[in-house]
Prior knowledge:
The protein is of the alpha/beta class. The chain has six helices and 15 strands. Helix content is 24%, strand content 33%.
Amino acid sequence: MTAQKYPLHWQKKNFSIKIFCSIPNIATGILLKAGNENFVIDPGDGILRDLNKEIGVKSLLNISNVFITHGHHDHVGGVWSLLTYLRVMQKKSPLTIHYPDGCVEIESIYNAFKKVYSRSITYKINLKAIKKTNGFTTSNISVKPFPVVHKEYLSTGKTRQVPALGYNFIYNGTKICYGGDTAYCDELVSHAKGADLAILEAGHDEETPDEMHMTMKEAVSIGESAKKYFLVHVPE
Ligand SMILES: [Zn+2]
Ligand SMILES: [Zn+2]
């Protein structure tokens, strides 16, 4: 498949999502809008540039929630600059960062940020490690996280499962299902089914399935169970 044309945009009434980019090993960046609220999902490198252009400083300062699917650099590379920018621009309202429990990258970035700027942080940061996938409401949306299968290589050549989630975002009865990075798994199959929009990664370059990413065929098979779908994270 040829490279996706980013940004990808989807809207139903006043619920919309814009995927600035989603390129494996490079960067992801997603903006979710529900009514007047803006949410950021997987702020990879370049997120600040894209948000600034899309919503401007005032709305950027009002962002209340960030959702992280997992700690790989192409999904969290922009967190440091986002946190620092909000400090420089004197954000006052709190910011909640939702992330899978055990995601050491987010906790490390947060701890380093607190240490470096201990005397000049103007807003409260709530770190919310998601331990259970019960679902919750934050700001004006319902969120239902779900576990996915996503492994990474260790230096020994072995693999390990990383703390990784997909999310359902529901607003006024409309559901967007974003799988994050994941291999084909039952949880994703059941959550994507019937969703108004499913955002599915097809990051695996080959035909043979593995435990890190989905093949194009796998992603399409899930996508066809949703009302509409986007394929993202396709290698370029
Ligand atoms: Zn990725
Ligand atoms: Zn990943």
